[in-house]
Amino acid sequence: MYNKDTIYLIGDAKTSSNNPIMQKYNAFFIGLVVDRTSHLIVDADCSATISLTSSFVKHLFEGQSMLNVDGVIDEISSRYFGSSQKALTVAFKNAHIKYKQIIES
Fold first, then answer.
1. Beta pairing partners, 40
2. What confidence tens digit (pLDDT) does each residue in 10-43 have?
3. CA 90, CA 95: separation in Å to the nearest integer?
4. How high is the pLDDT of residue 22?
């Protein structure tokens, strides 16, 4: 399904204690499959309690560049209004840091 140029990484963040995701998973996670040659996100998922959330997050991230942090964060800020918006942003920033470490090693 994924070619040899893709890698999988996780970004994580805490969210408010009354958030159902936090109650179920104790944290918020996003999983990203990224093409190392183009830096594009080819697949995404997240820890969510509603499947529509996972689907929406997937479509938010697919086709985005891991190198365009501000653009991705703007996309989250302008389109995702779930209770875990801040956690989604932090989780992406965390994944971006990990991605930079991977491609620079």
1. 65
2. 999 876 656 555 555 567 899 999 999 999 999 9
3. 9
4. 54
State the alpha helices, DSSP H only, in 10-105.
20-25, 51-61, 69-79, 85-104
Distance separating alpha carbons of residues 102 and 52, to the nearest angstrom? 30
| Tokens representing residue 74 in the block | 């703007």
Specify which residues 7 forms β-bridges with: 34
pTM recorded for the entire structure: 0.88
Q: Give the CATH number, domain containing residue 79.
A: 3.30.390
Is the alpha carbon torsion for 15, 20, 22, 28 positive or negative? Answer: negative
Q: Does residue 100 belong to any structural domain of this protein?
A: yes
